[in-house]
From TrEMBL:
Active site residues of this protein: E241
Cofactor(s) needed by this chain: Zn(2+)
Organism per entry: Shewanella fodinae
UniProt entry tagged with the keyword Zinc: yes
Pfam families: AstE_AspA_cat (PF24827)
Keyword terms, alphabetized: Hydrolase, Metal-binding, Zinc
Name recorded for this polypeptide: Succinylglutamate desuccinylase/aspartoacylase family protein
Amino acid sequence: MNSRSPFETFRWHSEIFACYSNDIEQFERQLLQETTRLRLKPRVLGHIDGWPLQLWQSPSARAGLPSVLISSGFHGEEAAGPWGMLHFMSELSEALFDQVNLTLLPLANPTGFSKGHRFNRFGDNPNRGYLSVGDGAQPSVEGKLLLAHGQLLQAASRDGILTCHEDVLSQQTYLYAFEPRQQPGAFSHGLLSALANYFPITEAPAIDGCPVQEGIIFNHFDSSFEAWLVRSGAKNGACSETPAKANFDRRILANSAVMQQFITALCA
Ligand SMILES: [Zn+2]
């Protein structure tokens, strides 16, 4: 949305993690702890200003299992996504990897996250420029790294892509969803229900120029990371939006819950 300011800074305190939302050192420490415990395989796609752009994958991918990708932290001020992913990981056990080939991209925009502002430190939007849809957007440095690993990301998201965003202007939740059908199905409704356990669903008829029906913006292709992966073959896609005017820990728990629901839906 144009009225979101790219360099306005946001910072919240988490009681769950006992730190501030932009504490990237603490985030990296806890991420290393969880990824080590789960024996996830690291894959560094590149570096941005010294910070790694990193994927974490199931210890060994298996044929016949669904392959799904969960990502967060594209917009630096939308901090409950990455912290929610840490919370989600803390509740996983290695047994999950008998059911799914999981790839995690916890922090797509480390320089924005550490400052608590939307865009990266170079002033670019890391969630635009993946598809040519006439918006004229060029990929950011993060986008270029992700696009350069297109084959890897397409294989990782073959059965589904979830990306977790927040809306700093909102007190209500909503969802962008992609399914190969005319109307939202069980996949979309399941994710929205997980969010609705934490926040009221938006009653807005349109958001950022997109029509919203019962909290869902359906099959809307912009130049975002998630639209690109769906266009590239991911069977299901979603982008959750938690309301950043609500309590930070509640937003963390909602992000964790929507990630869990995504896994449950696609492993069924
Ligand atoms: Zn966002």
